[in-house]
Structure to design on (230 residues):
């Protein structure tokens, strides 16, 4: 029996997203696996990773629940696990939870989110997390069969809050609107923002760049030092 999302991820847990895009000095699956091992040592409750190579490498070395995504195609469109095949490949690679674009936008093959979810569910019982941008999208994704909804895409689709921090308003609205766990993901920069997300009703939080992207962390320090007036 496949474990449900809440059986895998404890309430108020920290999920660490270990991703590095093409062009990053960290763009190696082994480096992502070492990031994942570091997150495990630090007490993370779960991990999130992109692509079959990284997911396979991480799952061979770290025994934590692993949210797998398979980013394919144009980042301006539906690109987080945009097809049934992309989802099943990430499960074969070792993901214990699938995350996918949960917006109402048609998939690149023309199918709807509801079609995609139904076809994935016919093939696997692995829980599905819908990355959404609005409360309407979260409600529709839940109706279509998503097990969990996350604020991941708020600010990235032309709708929602594109502010510098997490979209706490969306966390609050989703927590009131859906009967499943709500995950706060996207632009959580520190522990206070993670706590604020829990206070807004998040079941758990996903933190990526603030933990696993040293380029951004360095830039933040450099930019701040640049404001020093002697
Ligand atoms: C919009 C999009 O493509 N988000 C991606 C989803 O997996 C990742 O690039 C983010 O790093 C991840 O969501 C964690 O967010 P943050 O790195 O802000 O903590």
């Amino acid at each position: 029996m496949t474990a449900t999302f809440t059986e895998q991820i404890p309430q108020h847990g920290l999920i660490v997203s270990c991703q590095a895009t093409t062009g990053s000095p960290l763009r190696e699956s082994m480096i992502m696996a070492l990031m994942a091992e570091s997150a495990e040592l630090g007490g993370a409750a779960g991990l999130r990773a992109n692509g079959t190579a990284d997911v396979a490498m991480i799952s061979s070395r770290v025994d934590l629940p692993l949210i797998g995504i398979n980013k394919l195609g144009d980042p301006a469109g539906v690109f987080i696990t945009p097809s049934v095949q992309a989802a099943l490949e990430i499960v074969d690679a070792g993901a214990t939870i699938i995350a996918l674009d949960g917006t109402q936008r048609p998939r690149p093959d023309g199918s709807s989110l509801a079609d995609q979810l139904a076809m994935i569910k016919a093939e696997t019982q692995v829980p599905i997390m819908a990355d959404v941008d609005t409360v309407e999208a979260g409600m529709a994704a839940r109706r279509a069969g998503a097990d969990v909804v996350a604020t991941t895409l708020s600010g990235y689709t032309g709708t929602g809050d594109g502010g510098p921090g997490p979209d706490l308003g969306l966390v609050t609205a989703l927590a009131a609107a859906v009967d499943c766990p709500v995950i706060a993901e996207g632009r959580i920069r520190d522990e206070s923002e993670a706590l604020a997300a829990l206070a807004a009703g998040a079941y758990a939080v996903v933190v990526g760049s603030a933990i696993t992207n040293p380029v951004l962390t360095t830039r933040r320090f450099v930019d701040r030092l640049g404001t020093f007036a002697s």
Remarks:
- The radius of gyration is 17 Å.
- The first strand starts at residue 14 and ends at 18.
- The chain has a mean pLDDT of 97.
- The first helix runs from residue 5 to 8.
